[in-house]
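Changelog note: in this version the structure field was regenerated for every chain. One regenerated record is shown below for reference.
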Amino acid sequence: MTINGWLQIALFGVIIISIARPVGGYMTRVFNGDRTFLSPVLRPVERLLYGLSGVDEKEEQHWLTYATAMLAFSLIGVVSLYAIQRLQHLLPFNPQGFPAVSDHLAFNTAVSFVSNTNWQSYVGEQTMSYLTQMAGLTVHNFVSAATGIALAMAFIRGFARRSARTVGNFWVDLTRCTLYVLLPISIVVGLFFVWQGMPQNLNAYVNATGLEGGMQAIAQGPVASQEVIKMLGTNGGGFFNANSAHPYENPNAITNLVQMILIFTLGAGLTNVFGRMVRDERQGWAVFAAMGLLFLIGVSVAYWAEAPGNPAFARFNVDQVGSDLQSGGNMEGKEVRFGIANSALFATVTTDASCGAVNSMHDSFMPLGGAVPLVNMLLGEVIIGGVGAGLYGMLLFAILAVFVAGLMVGRTPEYLGKKIEAKEVKMAMLAILILPLSILGFTAIASVVPVGLAGPLNSGPHGFSEIYYAFTSGTANNGSAFSGLTANTLFYNTTLGFAMLIGRFLMIVPMMAVAGSLAGKTIVPASGGTFPTHTPLFVGLLVGVVLIMGGLTYFPAVALGPLVEHFAMNSGQLF
């Protein structure tokens, strides 16, 4: 570990803290329907969209109607994206002449992008046409992110409103998020990416002759437009198979920093939106602090695990100490342009949020370094998390935290003046327990059936980690991979597709039920026995609840993978 590495991590943290409040203020005005600096240009467009779609922006929806609208919209998205992939050989903008995508891969990819997961069992530059990339994948990068943010806004309204039967209008929230938040930022940063060297064209691939006389096909296409929204919307995936380690997707250190900032921007801003809408910004900062503390723990462990290098190499007298001539540490699978600190930071950021983009291969991390991305996802993607999903996931844990606090003092728990009763606790627990049911259930099946065991490229604990990571990534709607699993098979495409559906949609229904229940409650005035939820004590309790629930649920499986591999490697039994 170096001072320079820690300074780079600290710079990233300072930037995120600095932008959280202004981004939150802007998003609050957007979703409240207030005037913004973009309103003169975008307000007429917004009205036109409502008129064409028959939406009354003043008509709000009950939580069940809101959830039904979201599910119907997502179903149509899966069907349409599946059709585009299956028919891409007949559609235009396919200069490479790619054939139709197979049925099970098309199902997996359609579910993946609609659920904001963006797991890729394929090589993008060898599978998807330009039309599929633009009209299919990029479109869902926008609307799946907007869907998550819309759901978070509905959940926030549940806390902010009193004696209300509605939580907003899904179509209005979806439109405003896309039009006022996602599109403007994507246009500006997309042009910046083009300036920095990302391709943005519809040209055929270029065949170049190498220095040794061999031919190489240089892929290009509409890269910048997909790259910016995959980061901003915490979608992940990538135009190229190498993802953000590819120089066309991540040209230099500046774009690497900007991409990490984009991943956290909206998730961090939503914590401030929460504070503003409940009329106490300290509540938002408390949630942000809990997320920040978990992020700091994760990035510190990842950097600490990767910086010293591989202990097994010490027996061969391999010099792994950093110097002016070498970076030192475990550089296997790392992007040499960014080094260990930025690789550890990127891996932590992308799995704290449900992004899944990578600038290094997590499969090549040291066992404890690779455990950090895995644990980040196992905790429910609540450390900033996916846009919208991270906030409502953390607020579900906050409900459980105040319930635990209420049990300690023998008092009915309250959160932001709302009584937390049996219904809210049951629905919160149901939403949270859905995730381990999918992760552990599918991992158990894949670890014993022949078609599942044929997937991992490694045996032993590392092979188990590859399977475990895949179903964790799918259920957590992250999309990153250990890159050591042959996933483009009928078994894995199908099971991972169902894991993504479970992780996205089965969690949302009980969460929306909590939102509707809270919206109908009145505010209870604070008293001497009220547990304050904006103090360091509450932040510590919230972090403890997240860690304890994750530890109790997933620790046995984590022990079978990364921990066993770590101790075996240090004892020399892997060599």
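Spot check on this record: The two ends are 26 Å apart (CA to CA). Residues 21-279 form one domain.
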